[in-house]
Amino acid sequence: MSEYIILSIFLFLGAFIALAATVTGLLLGYRTKKTKNKMAPYECGMQTIGNARIQFKVGYYLFALLFLVFDIEALFLFPVLMNYKSIMAGNTPLSPTIVVIDLVIFMAVLVSGLAYAWKKGILKWE
Amino acid sequence: MFVPSITNPVGDFVRELVPQLAAFLPASLQSDTLNSIVAFLVNALICVIAVCIVNIGSAPILIYMERKVCAHVQCRLGPMRLGWHGTIQTIADVLKMLFKEVYAPSGADKLMFYLAPLIVLIAPFIVCALIPFGRNLVVADVSMGIPLIIAVNGFGVLGILLGGWSSNNKYSLLGALRSGAQMISYEISFAMILLFVVMISGSTNLMSITLGQEGTIFDWWIFKVPVLGIIAFILFFISSTAEMNRAPFDIAEAEQELTGGYHTEYNGTPFAMFYLAEYIALVTNSSLAVTCFLGGFYAPCIGISFIDQYLNMVPGVIWFFAKVFFMIWCYMMVRWTFVRPRVDQLMDFEWKFLLPVNLVLLVAGAAFIAISG
Fold first, then answer.
1. Contact A71 B191 (CB under 8 A)
2. Cis bond before residue B4 (omega within 30° of 0)
3. Residue boundaries of the structural domains of chain B
4. In this predicted model, what pLDDT tens digit does every residue of B170-198 receive, in sequence order?
5. Which of A41, B54, B178, B326 has the lowest CB atom count within 10 Å?
6. N- to C-terminal Cα separation, chain B
7. Do B202 and A86 touch (CB under 8 A)?
8. Per the CB < 8 Å rule, is A29 touching B123?
9. What is the percent of chain B with per-residue pLDDT over 70, rounded to a whole number?
10. Which pTM was predicted?
11. Does residue A18 sit within a domain?
């Protein structure tokens, strides 16, 4: 429990340092007149056309979905694989054979999902 | 009543010191609970200062090192003018950065624009708090160390996406999206390799992962599992390089295509924060590699007692940082000697090569444990 209190202090530490640095920069920084050309986005030297919040391709979203699947999979595997050694050594009430079969089914579902995405061409970047 | 406490040599020392100092106070102010809380706060302050020194202090050293490594790879000398061999060049650069003008470009979402560097800097500090630097030198010895590291790494992606989107610049947005796609893709193999380490060590606590590697060099996780350990280490090296957006996987900020990627519009200290986060991430990722594969704070003993007794005389912290700097040197050499792949090649490499190899590695590791018992 104490460890998590320390960690919550550290959660704000990084943000606090960045905030302090930004404020220092705002206070100490050299200031010049904010002309229109200076404040313009740094793109190509000419007047930018349109908004910068452009539409982008849906591929990014599909990769995010795949990421979600595999990251959660990794999270699910943590408790099993953490105790995998002791399960195999027979130190737990679980039967090693059943655990291995479960893991194989779990992995097979995932691998077939990846194979499906591959076949569908989601993994192709264009 | 629950009173938090820190158990390491420094924490124990403070906890004994505080009641002795409290004896000088009037009797009405004395209580064991108060003493413990004061001791905890003092300990927390010591931890914060120590981590700040390690993190923020190492960044100028690393920037100097990077410039020197880069220069010597390219047959140049690098910074030579300020101080002996340019040693105080980075301090001058930091001072220059402080006095640069800070402003958000027109059309930028100001709140998000200034929030992004804050979020980017959160993750490396938390990871740094979890790393065991020495036998008792760990800030937060949590049992869920590795899942926490994977979770916290997500903050970096968030900050980069926010920074790119809020800048009102098409290059920034494209750079942030590419960066986000790349980081989340390689986070999977990053998590899978850590899963492999968790499987062979049987713990998610970074301290017990390190303690499991006691003995000679062949007890380190990289060598303990024959062949698989080395493959896992190489995969970790690749995926953590991509995680950090370092070259050769720096398509997110490919200067030739995207001017500067997600931090094109940043200047002054907020830009310095992105830079700082990048270099702290270099330290934390190297520390993670050392903890998970290279024996943490253990000396590289080779099994000959005559040599080992001298190696063991060096404190663990020094071995730890020696290994970390070796890892950082490896990252730097890779950065300056490899060429950058295209975006599609990069994504193909992760999803069609690294991920299947990772799954095979996990299965092979499981089979190895099942057979060797």
1. yes
2. no
3. 97-372
4. 888 888 888 888 888 888 889 999 999 99
5. B326
6. 45
7. yes
8. no
9. 94
10. 0.89
11. yes
DSSP line for B313-355: TS-HHHHHHHHHHHHHHHHHHHHHHSPPPPHHHHHHIIIIIIH
What is the spatial distance between Cα A103 and Cα B36, in angstroms, rounded to a whole number? 46
Mean confidence (pLDDT) of chain B:
84
Q: Give the range of the structural domain holding residue A84, as residue numbers without chain letter.
A: 59-120
Contact B38, B23 (CB under 8 A): no
Do residues A70 and A116 share a domain? yes
**Lowest-confidence range among A32-36, B60-64, B211-215?**
A32-36
Q: What's the mean pLDDT when you consider all of chain A?
A: 83
Which residue of chain B comes nearest to A90, CA vs CA? Answer: B373
pLDDT at B256 over 80: no
- pLDDT for res B329: 92
- Asked whether residue A28 falls in the same domain as residue A64, the answer is no
Question: How many domains does one find in chain A?
Answer: 2
pLDDT in tens, B262-309: 777 888 888 888 888 888 888 999 999 999 888 888 888 887 888 888
Contact between B55 and B26 under an 8 Å Cβ cutoff? The reply is no
Do residue A64 and residue A105 come from a single domain? Answer: yes
> ipTM value of the model?
0.87
On whether residue A76 sits in a domain, the answer given is yes
Domain match, A71 and A106 both:
yes
Verify whether the Cβ–Cβ distance B370 to A43 is below 8 Å: no
From chain B residues 280-339, the ones with a CB under 8 A of any chain A CB are none
Eight-class DSSP state of A125: -
pLDDT of residue A6: 82
The answer to whether B40 and B46 have CB atoms below 8 angstroms apart is no
User: Could B102 and A85 be called an inter-chain contact, meaning their C-beta atoms sit closer than 8 Å?
Assistant: no
Candidates B99, B106, B140; nearest CB to A30: B99
Report whether B145 contacts B222 (CB < 8 A): no
**CA angle at B362 for the pair A68 and B331, rounded to the nearest 5°:** 80
Of A15, A31, A84, the CB nearest to B101: A31
Is residue A44 one of the residues assigned to a domain? no
